[in-house]
């Protein structure tokens, strides 16, 4: 591995760790507000214009402030991670280090969905041998950034993903994932086979704010 690639890998690891920390703090702050039945627009004064006595106003305002700050900063970190992953991919291609055909699969004229996040939202916990997922090149441990038109922030639970697969049975779906920090791309066609599900993949949600 070249020193250039190692530098990209270290930077990507740092950015990914930072995003995970930010996601956790974001989730903690949202959890605190939701316990009080608050959102970012809920006022901290009562109908008479007096500060509410049933809440810790300072703590509520701090939670609101941190949520806004983290959401803004998170977008910047995601952009930096996307740039770093792009640089890693280009360096790997330049050095002939990309040897998996699935990583270089052409997407032809398939439309590319422009996601608003580069944060993985689901992980492949297990994959069945001979399944459509395995044949597509997916591997256990892949952290999926984009699955067709799905990406982080619009998949609240696994049922959303399952319904999406059913709706797109026999359709070729473009997948972008992180595999050992490196970006990989492959095409999965959800279809009936002699096993469970349409892909043979067991998915697991990755840290998302509740």
Automatic annotation (TrEMBL):
Keywords: Chaperone, Coiled coil. InterPro entries: Nas2_N (IPR040815), PDZ_sf (IPR036034), PSMD9 (IPR035269). Residues 13-90 form the Nas2 N-terminal domain. SUPFAM superfamilies: PDZ domain-like. The keyword Lipoprotein does not apply. Pfam families: Nas2_N. It comes from the Eukaryota. GO terms for cellular component: cytoplasm; nucleus. Residues 92-114 are annotated as: Disordered. The keyword Chaperone applies. Residues 60-87 form a coiled coil. PANTHER family: 26S PROTEASOME NON-ATPASE REGULATORY SUBUNIT 9. This is Nas2 N-terminal domain-containing protein. It comes from Diploscapter pachys. The lineage of its organism: Eukaryota, Metazoa, Ecdysozoa, Nematoda, Chromadorea.
């Amino acid at each position: 591995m070249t020193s250039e690639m190692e530098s990209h890998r270290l930077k990507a690891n740092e950015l990914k760790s930072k995003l995970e920390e930010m996601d956790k703090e974001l989730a903690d702050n949202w959890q605190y507000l939701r316990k009080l039945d608050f959102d970012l627009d809920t006022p901290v004064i009562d109908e008479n214009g007096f500060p509410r006595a049933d809440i810790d106003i300072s703590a509520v305002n701090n939670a609101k402030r941190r949520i806004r700050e983290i959401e803004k900063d998170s977008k910047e970190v995601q952009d930096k991670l996307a740039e770093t992953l792009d640089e890693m991919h280009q360096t790997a291609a330049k050095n002939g280090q990309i040897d998996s055909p699935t990583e270089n699969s052409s997407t032809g004229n398939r439309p590319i969905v422009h996601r608003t996040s580069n944060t993985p939202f689901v992980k492949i916990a297990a994959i069945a041998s001979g399944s459509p997922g395995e044949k597509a090149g997916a591997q256990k441990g892949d952290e999926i950034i984009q699955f067709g038109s799905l990406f982080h922030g619009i998949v609240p639970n696994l049922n959303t993903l399952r319904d999406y697969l059913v709706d797109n049975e026999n359709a070729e779906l473009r997948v972008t994932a992180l595999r050992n920090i490196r970006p990989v791309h492959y095409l999965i066609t959800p279809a009936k086979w002699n096993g469970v599900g349409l892909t043979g993949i067991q998915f697991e949600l990755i840290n998302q704010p509740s």
